Amino acid sequence: MVMERRVTPQHIYTIEPKPAFLTEELAVEKARETLARDGYELEEWQVTNADTPRGKAPDGKRDVYFERFSFRPHAGRVHFRNKTQVRTYSVWLDGDRLTCTHFRGL
Question: What is the pTM of this model?
Answer without folding.
Answer: 0.88
